[in-house]
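Suppose a colleague, Dr. K., hands you the sequence of a protein chain of 465 amino acids and asks what its three-dimensional shape might be. Before reaching for any lab equipment, you can write down a predicted structure in token form. Begin with the sequence itself:
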Amino acid sequence: MVKNSPETTKLFVLDTNVLMHDPSSLFRFEEHDIYLPMVTLEELDNNKKGLTEVARNARQASRHLEEIVGTDLVNLEEGCPLAIKGNRHLTGRLFLQTQQVIKELPGLAGSKADNQIIGVVLDLKNRQPERQVILVSKDINIRIKARAMGVPAEDYFNDKVLEDSDLLYTGVRELPQDFWDQHSKAMESWQEAGRMFYKISGPLVKTFIVNEFVYYEFDKPFHAIVRKIEDNTAVLEIVQDHSNPKHNVWGIIARNREQNYALNLLMDPEIDFVTLLGQAGTGKTLLTLAAALTQTLDKKIYSEIIMTRVTVPVGEDIGFLPGTEEEKMAPWMGALEDNLDVLNKTDEDAGEWGRAATQDLIRTRIKVKSLNFMRGRTFLHKFLIIDEAQNLTPKQMKTLITRAGPGTKVVCLGNIAQIDTPYLTEGSSGLTYVVDRFKGWQHNGHITLVRGERSRLADFAGEAL
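The predicted structure, expressed as tokens, is then:
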């Protein structure tokens, strides 16, 4: 019998998919207790073999469990403290199922793993009526079935950075009409290296974020980036206008405000990490490649462009592909080919031969890599582009970004409305995670692109379908 705890703490029964999604979930329930049914341990054991992320997580969860339970034969019915190693602040305990539960579930086949877990929760509720017993699972169906049987069930939320993706930082802020009335007292302005700077103070300054773009679209349009915030003052730098053909990037000019801001971030050598979010056709890949080619071939800041993307098929998989790593990745890189065609056409004067020569030169500088072989690598002076980054988990995202060595710029592109990986949502995607965690760091920049510039057909389809 599980020892009664104070009525204020809850007892959470964990489904296997929670442990396989986040092995450290065992240490995420603060003062509450955790209960693991025998079926959960059994399923964990069945999924431990292999090299997949799920198998790795299953093995890690088992290691955590052994550390908590320890090697001594303790009385499991009294629970094992979760306060081990770096989690000393936890006051909850871990309980393992030590008794067979035979509970008839009307309408549910008893031997199925999900139904056995529901049976365990119902049994716990009967034995501890004064306590809240809650099932935690990432599986929607078991949560629906549990609620139908009168069992409270919740999703595992700890990995969610945001509940509502509409609240995600966009990187852009519109200034109110009375902005200058409140912020121009004691304003300073100066020029440095051909750029214009303003130092302002006022009530809005405290809400600014470093490298956030601010714009004022009234009598005198004003577009700037927040460079520094100290006490009550902020330093704003006027952005370069890439919508002017004079400031084109590899023949590409910005077609709207957000594209202009994105090019400013991509061309800024002081910014090491850029995230671009946006629907299909907003220009994420095109702008990034144009900036990468300019800085690799013309300015020679980077030695090479490395392009990688998450290979999650939208339909049925097409099976094994022949050839080298580069050739295997080729079918996934249609987006790269399409954008290179556009970028090559920008050089009208070169003629057919000149264009072919440029194309060959570009191809020698762009390497296509698979994500599967990234561990242990270090990229020096490279321009690393991670496409379709919304399909990465926070852990995979960390693995990739930590590959960056000195002089490397990392750009993550994605659309969080198009997630193809099971168990990832807009709130728990690795892309949402890095946008939220990196904001305010002086070498990070983020822009959410809003307007589609692909074609009127693509724009209408994006809205209507």
